[in-house]
Amino acid sequence: MNAKAYASLAPYTTFHIGGPARFLIEAHNDEDIKDTIAFARDQHLPLCPLGGGSNLLVRDQGVEGVVLWVKFDGITFEINEDETLCIAGAGVPWDTVVDAVGARGIFGIENLAGIPGTVGGAAVQNIGAYGAELAQVFAYADTINMVTGEHGRIEVTDAAFAYRTSLFKQRHDLLITQVAVRLKKNAKPNFSYADLSQVVRSGALLATSIEIARAVRSIRAQKFPQDPEEGTAGSFFKNPIISLELSASLSKHFPGLPTFPQPDGQVKIALAWVLDHVLSLKGYSTGEVRLYEKQPLVIVARPPATAADVDTFAQDIAERVFKTIGVSIEREVETFGEFLS
Ligand code: EPU
Questions:
Q1: Residue 118 gets which letter from DSSP?
Q2: Does ligand 1 come within 6 angstroms of the Cβ of 224?
Q3: Among 143, 177, 280, 335, which is least packed by CB within 10 angstroms?
Q4: Among the atoms of ligand 1, which is closest to the Cα of residue 129?
Q5: SS3 of 324, please?
Q6: Distance of CA 239 from the midpoint of ligand 1 (Å)
Q7: Strand 128-129 with 132-133, pairing
Q8: Is the beta carbon of 23 within 6 A of some atom in ligand 1?
Q9: Pairwise CA distance, residues 30 & 255, whole Å
Q10: How far is the CA of 316 from the centre of ligand 1 (A)?
C-alpha cells in the first residue's frame, strides 16, 4: 500500500480542479482496502472513496482525509437461460462495460454509452441518459464496510434507487467493490428519448447495441465540451421535480416547457430549457466559468478557475432560477472534501 501525502486531486477529476488529499491511496483488492482502513484509523482521518471523479467538485482547500482511489478491475459474465449477469469491478470505467456487453451482442445498457466515470460511481449516482437508468438493470453491488471491514451485498430491492440517487449516497460507510447488471435475453432497444428517435427517423441503422451505443456517443459529443482544456462534470444540476400544480402554472407562463410526469404524481421539468428559453443564460459566464453554449445544464470551467469560482457561479445560477420560477434547484455534482473545516 502506497500512501501519497498531499497529492493534488485535480488530475483525478473531470473538472481538473481542486486541492490536495492529505493522503491518496490506490486500492486494487480487499487486502488494500483492509490496509487503508487501518491506515486511516491510525491517522485519525476519515476515508473518502474516489472513482472516476466525473461528478465531483473538489474544494480548493483539498480533503483532510484519506482518499481511497477505487481501482478494482475485471469484467466477468454469468450466462443463464434467459439472462446474462455482467459483473464488473467498481474501478472499471463504465463505458468499458458498455463496450464489453455490446461486443457480446446483448442489449440493456447501450443508451448509457459514453457516460464518464466508473462502475462504482454509476451505482452511487444511478446514472441515467436517453431514457435508461442503471436502476433498471442493476442486480446487486458487493460492498466492504469501511468502519468494520465487513463484506456485504446490496440487492436492487435495497438499493433505494431514485433519480440520480441511491442508498450509497446515504451509507458513507459502504464502499462498492463490484456491481452486477442483469441483462435480459429478450431486451429490446429503447428509442423513446427524443434525441434517439430523431436518429432512428433519419434512417440510421441502429440494429445492434454497438450501433446504438455509437449513436448515443455521437449525440453526447454534440452536447458536452470536447476541448481537453475545459473541465466539466456533465449536468451540474438535477432537473427539478415539482408539484403538478406548480408545473401547470409554469407551463401556462412558459409555453413549451418540457414536463415529465413522475410515477408519484409529481412532475420533472427540463432545467436546460428554463436556462435557455426563460433566463437566456446559454453561454453566460463569470470569469472562466460558464454555462455551456450547447447544453446550459452543463457548467464548464477553464484554467485558472477555482472550485470556489464554480461554487459561486452555481449559486448565482440557482438564485436566478429561484427568483424567476420560484423553484430551488439541487446540485447533481457532489462537493468533495466538505468535511474539511
Ligand atoms: N434544451 C433546451 N436548450 C438546450 C438544451 C436542451 O431548451 O440548449 C431543452 C430541450 O427541450 C430538451 C430538454 O431541455 O428536450 C432536455 O435536454 P436534454 O435532452 O439534453 O437532457 P437534460 O434533461 O438536460 C438529462 C441528464 C443528462 C443526460 C440527458 C440525456 C440530468 C440532470 N441530466 O439532461 O445526464 O445525458 O438527460 O438523457 O438528468 C448527467 O447526469 O451528468 C447528464 C449529463
A1: B
A2: no
A3: 280
A4: 38
A5: helix
A6: 8
A7: antiparallel
A8: no
A9: 54
A10: 20
| 240 Cα: distance to centroid of ligand 1 (angstroms) | 12
In ligand 1, the atom with minimum distance to the C-alpha of 233 is 42
Give the chain's length.
Answer: 341
**Which of the four pLDDT bands, split at 50, 70 and 90, describes residue 1?**
confident
Ligand 1 atom 23 nearest Cα: 270
Average pLDDT, integer, range 290-311: 97
What pLDDT was estimated at residue 339?
A: 43
How deeply is 202 buried, as exposed, middle or buried, from its count of CB atoms within 10 A (0-12, 13-18, 19+)? exposed
The string of pLDDT tens digits covering residues 113-146 is 999 999 999 999 999 999 999 999 999 999 999 9
For the cut 60, the answer to whether the pLDDT of residue 291 exceeds it is: yes
* 281 and 320 Cβ atoms separated by less than 8 Å: yes
Nearest to 168 by CA among 137, 127, 124: 124
Nearest CA residue ID for atom 40, ligand 1: 235
Local confidence band at 336 (pLDDT 50, 70, 90 cut-offs) = confident
Catalytic sites, residue numbers = 164, 235, 332
∠ CA 50-75-166, nearest 5°, is: 45
Residue 305 alpha carbon to ligand 1 centre in Å? 24
**Ligand 1 atom at shortest distance from the alpha carbon of 277:** 7
Cell 458536452 sits on residue: 224
Tens of pLDDT, residues 141-196: 999 999 999 999 999 999 999 999 999 999 999 999 999 999 999 899 999 999 99
Tell me, in angstroms, the distance from the centre of ligand 1 to residue 287's CA: 24
Supply the pLDDT for residue 282.
97
Predicted structure pTM score:
0.96
Written as one letter, the residue type at 18 is G
Q: Is the CB of 71 under 6 A from ligand 1?
A: no
Query: Which single residue is written with the C-alpha cell 461486443?
Result: 103
Give residue 338's pLDDT: 59
* Nearest CA residue ID for atom 5, ligand 1: 295
